[in-house]
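When time allows, look over one protein, given below as sequence and C-alpha cells. The question is which stretches look regular and which look disordered:
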Amino acid sequence: MQELEYKRYEEIGNWDFSNIEYTVKQDSNWNFYKEISNYSSKSSLILDLGTGGGEKALSQMPDAGMIIATDFSPKMIESANINKKNYPNKKIKFVTMDNLNMKFPNNLFDIITARHTIIDAKQIYNCLANNGILIIEGVDKYDCWELKTLFNRGQAFKDNISISQKDYNDLKEAGFSEINLQEIVQYEYYKTDNDLLALLLKTPILDDFSELDTLSNTHKNQIEEDLFNKYISQHTTDKGIELKRVLYGIVAKK
C-alpha cells in the first residue's frame, strides 16, 4: 500500500459519483454485478475487496449469505457504515483491510470480488474455497489513453504491459484452473467541463501517486488548465465531452 494513495483516499472519504453528470455507451455486454449474480446464491459467502464507501456493494451486490466488504481506508469504511443505514436488510459487514495483507483463513470464501482495486493473486487463491470464483473489473493501461497522452502521465501510463495481462499472468501463476479475460470498452460523455474535472480530481486517471509536495508532504492533485481546455476542445461532441474508457473483466476459478 502506497502512503500517498492511502492519504488520497482518506481525504476523499467516499466513492460516490452521483453528483457528476454523464452518460455511458458500452461496446461490451460484460457486467461485473451480473457476473456476481451468475455465480452466487442465497447462501454464498462473498468477499468484496476495495469496496470504497460501500456504495456499489450495498446497491448492486446480489443477496447472499453474507458479504464481507473491505477497504484499506478507515475513512472509506466509516462512510460505508453510514451508507449501510439505508440498507438495513443487507447482509454485509465492512472491515478495514489492505488487499495486499489479507487477514482471513484459507479456503473460506465462495466468491471474491475486486472492482477497480489492486489485488494479490496468491492471497486471493488461498482465501477461496475449492472451486471458488474470483470476479474482477479493472481499469486497464489504455484507459483514457488520449487524455493520458496529452498530459504525458497517468495510471499505468509507463507500464511495460497492460494491467489486465499482469493480472492474468499473476492468476495463472497463483494456480487458478480457469481464467477468462474480457476487454470492456465504453464511452463516457460528460455534460460540462466541471463534470469531467470533478472525475479527474477524484480518481487516479492522471495520477500515478508518485509526485510529492516536499513542503507540505502531501500529494499534488493538479490539473493543468491549458491541457485540460485542449482536451475539451478536441473531444466535445453533441453528446457531451467524450472520454474513452478501456476496462477489463476477469472470471477465474480455483
Notes: Strands lie at 22-26, 45-49, 66-71, 92-96, 109-115, 128-139, 178-190, 236-237, 240-253. The longest strand covers residues 240-253. Residues 163-174 form the longest helix (12 residues). Confidence is low (pLDDT under 50) at residues 3-10, 209-220.
